[in-house]
Amino acid sequence: MFDDRRWGLFKRNLQPTLTLWSAFCSFGLCMAFLGPTLLDLRCQTHSSLQQITWVFFAQNFCVLVGTIIGGAFKKTFSCSLSALFVSTLLISAVFSIIPFCNNVVILAFVLAVAGLAMGCIDTIANLQLVRIYQKDSPIFLQVLHFSVGFGAFLSPMIADPFLSETNCIKNNLTANGTASDLTHIRNSLVPHHMVNETQFDLPTDGLVISQVSYAFWIMALINLPVPVAVLFLMCKQGFGGCCGKKSTPLLPAEELPRDVQMDRLSPGQEKALRAKEPDGLIDCLKGLHLQEAPCTFFVVHVIGAVVLFMTDGILGEYSGFVYTYAVENPLAMEPRVAGYLNSLFWASITLGRLASIPVSGKLKPATMVFINLGGMIGTFVLMLCFPASIICLYVGTGLLGFFLSSTFPSMLAYTEDILNYQGCATTVLVTGAGVGEFALQMLVGSVIQLSETDLFLVCGLTFSCLALLFYLVLLLVHRLHSHLTTTEPTKTGTIEESQFQYQS
Fold it and tell me: Residue 93 belongs to what domain range?
């Protein structure tokens, strides 16, 4: 997995790498807490189920906005670290403030702020890790996405002991509330769609009895070392007014990431180089010079984003509706048994990301993406062949999570490799993945109640086939792009090495 060269590179970049991994753990911690705690938050805000599910929308929509905002900090490592520090600190602040939100509108606003922070972390961590390791980034990206899985695994475990086992609003009508009803409701909650929400009659007035506040405060404390680690890295790199004189960089000047090298330039040199760089997402997509960039430069971005739109959309719609599919005919599983499907799905994703770390050192990202997409299609075909088999559904859920697990980091590494790590592909791909998870979940939620019981699996198979189709097109475009860039080399990116020397 790690040869001498990769191990040496890792040791030279140890602190920034560990900091980015820990920031992504914060992202996972914030990503997974809302579903289990939503009913207790409903009691805390005295709101109905229909009202409280809008906080899902507020958070997830702002995650999309945050991914775009995060791309604005891509030019320099110092700006990225500053944004990362603010974002990780905001997550701890949000966890601390949530227990004091007694109104659903205020809660939605606080979670929207958390969504902006999550989106920034998503883009910045992926982008900076790719820029540091470049062609060696696949292994480190796999670890990065394992970190988000670990955070998402940890968050519900912290919350579970503090969740209400009966109705957390007490009055004369809820004295006989049962835990089984709450379990079913929790598993039915989906970020952008509440299945048959009117069938659940939960009170909004009465005495609130909930201990979930302790869970949020524990998560705030657990997350607090992350912004401290980012601040320490900022001081080590010499960024920020609180640190005084710039310290010695973590790496020799010639081995620093290009962003860090540019931070060391004199003002005149830096201004000249900035003028040559894209300033925003649109300019980035057009290439460093519109008249010199081949048309395939734009096409690679679009197709890569579409592939992740499909695959992350599958992740969102499957995790959101597999429980609903399982408790309906023809499977008609018991709610308690069906509730394990989501846990199995996320556990297999985390396990798959862990297994992908050594595999990515042996296989090329392009090969891994192809295997993942083929495995997803085969899994959906298997489940469609045996639609009434509970065992097949459990096996298929585990396999699907395993194949989905490494698709995003492998696709990101492959696309950046095609474009020679020019930087803007990460922003485009992260945004495309977020839109897919948001949009396809809404689409499937709007048709899940139709009479065709296997429509849920048909949607998954359709999205998987479309993802494979677009990926095959991307392979062809890659060959064309390689031909154009070798026969008509551009002058972009040819910056004198002397401009990158550390200014003492």
Answer: 12-264
